[in-house]
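Worked Example 4.2. Consider the chain below.
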Amino acid sequence: MKEKRAQDPNDPVLPAVEERELVYGGLEAGLGEVFEVPIGPIHPALKEPIRLTFKVRGERIVGVQVRTGFAHRGIEFMGMRQGRNLIQILYLSERICGICSISHPIAFTQAVERAAGIEVPPRAQYIRVIISELERIHSHLLWAGVAAHELGFDTLLHLTWRVREKVLDILEELTGNRINYAIPIFGGVRRDITPDQYPKVREALRYYRGLLNELLDAFLRDPTVEARTRGVGILEPKEAEELCAVGPTARASGLRKDVRQDRPYLAYPDFEVKAITPEDYGLTPMGDVYDKIVVRLLEVGQSIEIIEKALDNMPDGEITSFPKIPALLAHLKKAEGEGLGWHEAPRGEVIHYVRLVSGEESPLVWKVKAPTYSNLMSWYPMFEDQEVADIPIIAACIDPCICCMDRVYLVRDGKEEILTKEELLRLSWEKTRRMAR
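Applying the procedure from the previous section yields the following structure tokens:
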């Protein structure tokens, strides 16, 4: 069992500003020289911009500093201040994350529906669940391939990404798109699942059910994968709870924490979802990278079961409570109130909050909390006393999505400032010209 470190007293646990610089971990004097190893914000091992500065002694990490704030697209700002109506903003919410492109719209539509008093027909709830669980399968397979790549096991990367094509094909069959499905709408869904599509979905589910043991064998019974992941990046249960970890990151540490279980929504109460931990695979949870692989692969099997039950018990009826878009827009413009929407995304809990004002098309407030925002703090204990060679897989094991998470404040001379779109573009052009010179 590793020792609990004392936090640097100069750094708060959760800083007030979003661009933060935290140090977690102390250095022991007299045990060799300490070097700084900066990684990012642009680095081949990073898929998105973030800066990690490691303090290393030999090959061991003795301190880490995390800085965020390098990516910000201003999606919430555009939703609140650019004169868009809520249906147009729904498209923005879908583009917060390409991999979780059903998760954010599901949370956003729920928030608006609660604020506007809109009911969702049971059939539409089932369809939302089916698309969400198909996305979970594709996201977990994508992550498994990335994890294999970070371990240097590219054969396994190509295997998982090849079999992932099947679920993307089914998503395209049901929604018209392999990504950014555009399926939810306030009060229901845009497309039904037709009788001729049922056999195609079931065939894909049989394919993944037959493949699951092969994936479990390739990842969990391979001595190379086990040697590179067992005891690496440990997040103890107490640390996971104190640092508010969510999703597979928390469940791999033994916390049975899942929004579908703890606060069921849509049609999830009908499926009695239970949070999966390594105990379901006969293991005592360590919270290491190996356990995070276990949880995600078992959740692929769980998603298959949920989709099968949804297909077997799909209720008849309408797929939306507002067949005509003009009627929906008129209702939304008159709505006033606030609403909270949540969804268990593949990475963990995503939350959307909106406040609507009668007579206005855009929300007065729209706030998004992505799961990476909760899981980022878990990096600190996970990196403690690990080897430099394990940095890529530890960083990847929480499945970070930096563009989902990042928020930026501009502070100049101790005062916060707001940049207009025109000012931001001007500064960007000036920087581009400086770099070109």
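DSSP finds 17 helices and eleven strands in the chain. Residues 3-30 have pLDDT under 50 and may be disordered. Compare this with Example 4.1 before moving on.
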